[in-house]
Amino acid sequence: MNDDFLLVNKKILPSFFEKVLETRRLLETGEIKDITAAVKKTGISRSTYYKYKDCIYTPDFGGSQRKAVLSMLLSHEIGMLSTVLRALSDMGASVLAISQSLPIHKMASIIITIDIGTLNCSMEKGLALLSSIPGVENASLILLE
C-alpha cells in the first residue's frame, strides 16, 4: 500500500491541489457549510473538488484520529467476528463501527470502521494478517481518512 503514495513538494503541483485542501478545511471546520460556496471561495470547480478530495492530504492529516473502513467476507462460524476483532485489537486498532449482513451461503459481509492512529503495523501488513485468518475472505481497504 505504501507504493500508492508519493511525498511531493507542493511547489511542483498545480495550485488546485492546495485549493482542494482549503475547500475541505472550510467544510470540515464549518466555516462554510455548502460545497458550492466553498469551491466558489477557493476558486475551483465542484468536479475538481470531488475528483481529488479523498486523494490529497497534508503530511499531518488526521494525527492520532485516522480512520479506515475495511470490508471482509467472514465464514459463518461461532467466534469468527470475535477473532477478527481480537486481531484488530492486537494491531492497535480501535473499532469505531461494525456493520454485518445476514449470512448467505454460510458467508457474512462485514464493514468495520477503525481508528488507525495507534496502529502498530502498516495498513498493508494488517490487511495481510486479517486475510490470513482462516474463515476471512476478501479483506480489503475501502477508504482511508
Can I get a quick summary?
The chain has 145 residues and is an alpha+beta fold. It contains five helices and four strands. It has two domains: 12-52, no CATH class; 67-144, Alpha-Beta Plaits, CATH 3.30.70.260.
Protein described:
This protein is of the alpha+beta class. It folds into two domains: 12-52, no CATH class; 67-144, Alpha-Beta Plaits. 34% of the residues lie in helices and 23% in strands. The protein contains five helices and four strands. The chain has a four-stranded antiparallel β-sheet, covered by helices on one side. β2 and β3 (107-115) form a beta hairpin. α1 (16-29) packs across α2 (35-42). The longest helix is centred in the N-terminal third of the chain and has 14 residues, at 16-29. It is elongated, with a radius of gyration of 18 Å. The model has no long low-confidence stretch (mean pLDDT 88).
